[in-house]
Amino acid sequence: MSAQPISTDSIATRASQVVRGACPHDCPDTCAMLVTVEGGKATRVAGDPDHPFTRGFLCAKVNRYVERTYHRDRLLFPLRRVGPKGSGRFERCSWDDALTEIAARLNAIRESADGPQAILPYSYAGTMGLIQGSSMDHRFFHLIGASLLDRTICSMAGTMGMRMTVGANIGADPEGVPESDLILLWGTNTLTANPHFWPFVLEARERGARVIAIDPIRTRTAAQCDDWIGIRPGTDAALALGMMHVMLDRGLEDAAFIADHTLGFDELRERVREYPPERVAAITGVPVETIVSLGEQYGRARAAFIRVNYGLQRHAGGGMAVRTIACLPALAGHWKRAGGGVQLSSSANFQFDKRALERPDLSPPVRTINMIRLGEALTTRDAGVGGPPVRAMVVYNSNPAAVAPDRNEVLRGMAREDLFTVVLEHFQTDTADYADFVLPATTQLEHWDLHLSYGHHYVTLNQPSIEPVGESLPNSEIFRRLGARMGLDHTVLQDDDVTMIKQALGSKSEKLAGVTFETLVEKGWTRLNVPTPYLPFAAGAFPTPSGKCELYSARMAGMGLDPLPAFTPPYEFPDTAPELAARYPLTLISSPAHQFLNTTFVNIDSLRKSAREPECLLHPLDAERRGIAPGMRVVVHNDRGAFTAVARVEETIRPGVVWAPSIWWGKFAADGANANQTTSQRETDMGHGPVFYDNLVEVGLAD
User: Fold this and answer.
1) In which domain, by residue range, is 521 found?
2) Tally of domains within the chain
3) What is the tens place of the pLDDT at every residue in 649-687?
């Protein structure tokens, strides 16, 4: 069967067909998905074999998407709370009653002395789609004058690091990787977090490329690489500076590229002298000979590709770490050839018309609340940033009761009886348990959406393949109906989803030339108007103020930051916080389990059983000192909180580090807790991002 476009008017009448869609989840791969529909019911999802990046397969998680859509616990009707907050006790109600009561409560807050800024939207990347994630919802909140949300919980530190160095979050094209002769997988567990990139790595290896993983944990990806460098968490910038020291000491830099396309090389040379391999070894825990070898390999490579991911920027110096690594390709001239450069994200190439989609011009001047400081916002009188207390919160595409840092503080705020909370969801998550109303949202198989990618260069359209299950509605339609019920009659709330897709595609960006709604309906996906492979900076032309790769950044100096690459230690670092480290000597990393994507899929039985139960991985030396054997139940704790897990003891993690694969819903954990009981609400050096992995803990035997 060929994949065909589908309209919501004819879904139920089609006997059997394959519909083109897109994976909605927070992953750089943004897979083109084929949905088999028989008798109006989805029976199978598969990767599009014609898509140059998806190449016909889906990850272990999304392969379960049909099971997720028809799950026995799927929310099918609006619910009204009847028990205490957090109890999860609700009764069914009609859409009419739910919208009427929600509208009345929100309008009352708007008209009160506190005003509309007492209303807070809270959302992130539960879907990466522009329509269900950042269109009608933004228009609605702008129109009512709600507080703005600074959506920093994932990528902003690294994004700022790239902007300050190369000008935008634009990186090398993964489709050029087969031409690489050296690949550094730096802070990325590719087989879990970016699996469709791996075939390109294998092609390069078959042609002779060396593949090196730099990670505190010998992940399933690191185990497949030629070398694993077990670095201390939060010290990546120091390692990059050590590599630069080796390169410049041996004359391995590309003098012509530096002269033509960089700014501040002389100043950088002086800075790099401060980071000889011996000092870097003391900071990073990486042996001197490994640092020297890595610097030499990188400097001598013809086309070296660095894939960095967001884990390494989740500490105090996260923005600086990404910035420092991003300087490396310019020093070595690796931008000049296919397979060379660095990639954190490709997202800045997707220049959709987001102003037309979100309509920020409709919002009056209002405060902005950082989403990673939700606990503070809900428990302080002025929400931590001035203005009225938060009296209402509307949550969609996120599960803050599980994912937000400093979870104990978040739950304390969400338990307020005077906080009116509305949650749009597929399932009764930890967050939904604290809602006053839960509204059933559609899954990806049931609505229109438009997707960019932060790992390749293809725009993807998602077409609905089945009718909404139960009484579920798309996020966009829920906000349309709520706006109407609140008496908002602005025309922007009347646009349908297809209209908004066309508005987003209406950008005048040259990179979107040829990307139209019609071509997307026909094919499902279209490459941006960039060459294959895409060499963004082969001839310089960096989108910085100087037009060059800014090794020295005047913008950073203006922000009060070091204008040159530097090592910024974590807040909770044994070398700089010795008293804290004496009590809590282990650094906790809580990156996603292979079976989960943050908290998505935790409730899918087969995937949760595969993940077993909350676990933590310790090095044998750390386990022996604490009398911990494999399989023992342990408690991971610090001054902020604690959670229990089952110990695994292996040499696949460096000493001094503990790994707790996450993020478990509290209701599926024996103690109702997860790793975010221990994380803080502090911010990174740039971008106001979270410091999830800047987290000292101790591990002991549970009672």
Assistant:
1) 79-154+350-527
2) 3
3) 999 999 999 999 999 999 999 999 999 999 999 999 999
Radius of gyration for the chain, computed over Cα atoms and rounded to the nearest angstrom: 25
- For residue 698, list its beta bridge partners: 637
Two tokens at 438? Answer: 């839960």
Transcribe 524-573 into DSSP letters. SEEE-SS-SS--TTTT---SSTTSSEESS-HHHHHTTS-SS------SS-
- Identify the sign of the CA torsion 580, 583, 586, 590: negative
Please state, in angstroms and rounded to a whole number, the distance separating the CA atoms of residues 95 and 435: 16
**What gap in Å lies between CA 100 and CA 97, rounded to an integer?**
5
| Closest residue by Cα to residue 338 from 539, 177, 145 | 177
Nearest to 193 by CA among 234, 154, 161: 154
Exposure of 303 by Cβ count < 10 A (0-12 exposed, 13-18 middle, 19+ buried)? buried
Q: Give the end-to-end CA distance of the chain in Å, rounded to a whole number.
A: 58
Q: How many whole angstroms separate alpha carbon 238 and alpha carbon 575?
A: 14
On the question of pLDDT at 5 being above 50, the answer is no
CATH classification at residue 480: 3.40.50.740
Q: Which amino acid appears at position 563 of this protein? A: P
**HSE-up (13 A, CA, CB side) for residue 104:** 7
pTM score > 0.85 for this model?
Answer: yes
Residue with tokens 């798309």: 474
Confidence band for 381, pLDDT divided at 50, 70 and 90: confident
SS (H, E, C) 562-609: CCCCCCCCCCCCCCCCHHHHHHCCEEEECCECCCCECCECCCCHHHHH
What's the pLDDT score for residue 384? Answer: 77
Q: Which residue type sits at 362?
A: L
Summarize the confidence of residues 42-65 as an average pLDDT: 97
Among the residues of 114-215, which ranges form H helices?
Answer: 130-133, 136-144, 156-166, 190-193, 198-206
Classify residue 71: in a domain, yes or no.
no
**Would you state the structure tokens that stand for residue 443, as one six-digit string?**
């899954």
**Whether 171 and 147 share a structural domain:** no
- How far is residue 407's CA from residue 680's CA, in Å, rounded to a whole number? 9
CA atoms within 13 A on the CB side of 695: 31
Q: Which pair of structure tokens corresponds to residue 208?
A: 């002779």
Rounded to 10 degrees, the C-alpha dihedral 144/146/148/154 comes to: -100
Q: Rounded CA gap, 338 and 490, in Å?
A: 49
The pair of three-digit structure tokens given for residue 277, joined into one six-digit string:
């391999």
Asked whether residue 39 is domain-assigned, the answer is no
C-beta separation of 190 from 364 below 8 A: no
Q: Phi/psi at 70 (nearest 5 deg)?
A: -105, 20
Going by the DSSP 8-state scheme, the letter that residue 338 receives in this structure is: T
Q: How would you class 703 by CB atoms within 10 Å of its CB: exposed for 0-12, middle for 13-18, buried for 19 or more?
A: exposed
Backbone angles phi, psi at 257, to 5 degrees: -65, -40
Residues 358 and 463 in one domain: yes
Residue 521 identity (one-letter amino acid): V
Percent of the chain scored above 90 by pLDDT? 94
* Residue 409: inside a domain: yes
The model's pLDDT over 430-457, given as tens digits with 9 standing for 90+, comes to 999 999 999 999 999 999 999 999 999 9
Dihedral of CA 392/398/400/405: which sign? negative
Average pLDDT, the chain: 96
Strand partners, 653: 217
Among 145, 97, 161, 142, smallest CA distance to 361 is for 142
